[in-house]
Design brief:
By secondary structure, the protein is of the alpha/beta class. It is built from 13 helices and five strands. The protein is elongated, with a radius of gyration of 30 Å.
Length: 326
């Protein structure tokens, strides 16, 4: 493919803006150093001449309105068209997302620059101040280095949020499983081994037993018919044999000290409650992911053998809209 520009990392949107302005002195660059409470802002033209020294604005709707008002007045004073204004700042945390979206919703061009690259453009590599950071951002923007198109938007942004949230909850559930294993190894060794107990670990039946008055001595003392009915209601196949196997394991298991059983039971009960809540949340997110995935082109990925809803949604969410990405 024939290359049209030797500077492959330059933003086409910013280059187009410079071409529209024709004269660099007739365009305005507004670098922003984002923060949770107050952003620092600087006005300069395309040649790097400072039009207004750094000042702060609130990270709020009023702050956004004030910034737009000051940009409008400054453009009128210097004879710059509002179509030739470029905003930009370092890629940052979620605290500035709504501020950036509010500017983009008003049709302003807002670029994001890489924080590590912006540091290399600073005049002083040893120190970091708001003014130095703004100058580094300004130099990157005037060098046409920045990303003006968010990777995800619309339903793809929602899908990415759901997929990442589900991944975090799955990690939390895995950690909770490990803690449950630690407690069960003390209160009823071998119960979470299906070959020994006959009950699938972390199944509905397993969770129900562990949630209330659970320990090796208590399982051994419970009436066989009562346990059989309980397992039968949970869909366990051949519950009578399973109960026999379970109580035999309970009789042979090493028992914890009597004075610690109550404490272990309370701890295990709370862990089971949290694990159950995580499972319900994961399942709800899974349903939402499937619903959103069905509205995108990524749904066709599930027709490939070995690719399920979660993997297809993760790939689709991270790539973004195929009609907007290169």
């Amino acid at each position: 493919m024939k290359k049209k520009n030797i500077f492959q990392n330059q933003s086409q949107e910013i280059l187009t803006l410079f071409e529209m302005a024709e004269n660099r002195s007739k365009m305005m660059c507004v670098p922003m150093d984002y923060a949770k409470k107050d952003h620092m802002v600087l006005f300069c033209n395309g040649n790097g001449k400072i039009l207004r020294k750094p000042f702060s604005i609130k990270n709020s709707l009023d702050g956004k309105r004030y910034l737009v008002d000051q940009v409008t007045k400054s453009c009128r004073h210097h004879g710059i068209s509002l179509q030739h204004v470029l905003f930009g700042g370092e890629d940052c945390g979620s605290y500035a997302d709504n501020f950036i979206i509010a500017l983009r919703s008003d049709k302003w061009l807002v670029a994001g620059v890489n924080a590590h690259d912006a540091k290399t453009y600073r005049e002083n590599m040893q120190a970091s101040t708001d003014s130095l950071d703004l100058l580094g951002i300004s130099k990157m923007l005037l060098s046409c280095r920045g990303n003006c198109s968010p990777a995800q938007s619309g339903i793809y942004l929602d899908l990415r949020t759901l997929v990442r949230q589900r991944r975090k909850l799955v990690n939390m559930a895995t950690g909770m499983k490990n803690r449950i294993h630690t407690t069960v190894d003390r209160i009823f060794p071998g119960f979470l081994n299906e070959n020994k107990s006959g009950i699938a670990p972390f199944s509905k039946c397993s969770l129900l037993l562990m949630e209330d008055r659970f320990s090796a001595p208590q399982i051994h003392r419970r009436q066989g018919p009562t346990l059989t009915k309980l397992l039968s209601r949970q869909g366990v196949q051949r519950p009578d044999r399973c109960v026999e196997k379970l109580q035999k394991l309970a009789a042979q298991a090493l028992k914890p000290p009597e004075q610690h059983i109550a404490t272990l039971q309370i701890s295990l009960k709370q862990q089971i409650k949290l694990f159950t809540c995580l499972q319900e949340s994961i399942q709800q997110l899974y349903t939402e992911i499937a619903y959103n995935l069905a509205q995108t082109q990524g749904a066709f990925l599930t027709s490939i053998k070995g690719i399920g809803i979660v993997l297809a949604a993760g790939v689709c969410a991270e790539i973004g809209d195929p009609y907007k990405q290169k």
